[in-house]
Amino acid sequence: MAGRQYVRMSVRWAFNFRAWSPSAEDWILCNQCVQPEETQRISKFVFKKDAKSSMIGRLMIRKVVSEYLNIPYKEVTLARSEKGKPYLTGRTDVDHFSFNVSHQGDYAVLAAQANCNLGADVMKLETRTDVASFFQTMRRQFTAEEWQLIRSPTTDKEQLKLFFRLWCLKESYVKALGVGIGFEVGRLNFHLPSLNIDSSVITDTTLKIDGTAMSDWSFEEHFLDNHSIAVAVNNTCKTPSEKLVNEDMNEELLSTAGEFKVLDYKDIMKNVQPLSEPDMSFWENFHPKAEDPSQWKSKQAQKS
């Protein structure tokens, strides 16, 4: 079959949206390359950082669906479930292809893979001055064993690192299920044989739910620029793991060992096709906004 090949690959992408300062031309083109309902949703964000993270997440989904599944860009149609999880619609020839995005801190991340169900989550490891009270507020979200692990280091920084790592794992699992915030994450008990995730992909983490081992699930953990990333993968699909892929897809953007590839704007926009005509109003909506709450407060203080 010309132009295609079977591969056993996954996709793991990350993009630093806080370091991205789009020009008017860039932002207008981005809006042209996502569906109209998404441009309207993105335009409602109060701060630039949220608009940028949402935009990049949507563009990454369209890119991976088009390039991984060899679907023409303009034919990619995405919808959202009742819980807000994006999915590919309008195709009867695509099955068992799972993708998920997450954005928090400085990064938007995407995980995608054939013949499985997956979820991804990212959290920036930020310092806090109220660690004890924060942990008290979150006490019901973790098991006694997990709290023992979280509190085992002697410093607040290391305790928070374990806290956010476990929280990412819980969120990745819930997102893979697609059930939203209704799931009681306190039922999830993660075991972390490897405590250091600073330099490599960790894959030996295991999960029990109400004491029962979830042997059909595997977990990948990453540490990127002070961000914890977790990917939960359910491997219960019985179909072969090969997936039809466009052979022209850049192999450097595929992952063979679970590592995340950090993309730049040119990577994101390669091979995109505008779905609509350029509209300056998208830039006029975006440009005056503050980057984040701290910048908004600074601007308000200058006015007073």
The SSE string, one letter per element, is EEHHHEEEEEHHHEEEEEEEHHH
The end-to-end distance, rounded to whole angstroms, is: 67 Å
Shape: globular
- The beta-strand count equals 14
Report the major sheet: 4 strands, mixed
Low-pLDDT sequence parts: 1-8, 238-245
Secondary-structure-based class equals alpha+beta
Give an account of the 3D structure:
By secondary structure, the chain is of the alpha+beta class. The protein has helices at residues 24-32, 36-43, 48-69, 131-137, 144-150, 156-177, 265-269, 280-286, 293-303; strands at residues 4-7, 10-16, 77-80, 86-89, 97-104, 107-114, 117-124, 188-191, 206-209, 212-213, 217-224, 227-234, 243-246, 261-262. It has a four-stranded mixed β-sheet, covered by helices on one side. Strands 7-12-11 form a three-stranded antiparallel β-sheet, covered by helices on one side. The chain has a three-stranded antiparallel β-sheet with strand order 8-9-10, with helices on one face. Helix 1 crosses helix 8, helix 2 runs antiparallel to helix 3 (48-69) and helix 5 crosses helix 6 (156-177). The longest helix has 22 residues, at 48-69. The model is unreliable at 1-8 and 238-245 (pLDDT under 50).
Structure characteristics:
alpha+beta, four-stranded mixed beta sheet, three-stranded antiparallel beta sheet, 9 helices, 32% helix, 25% strand
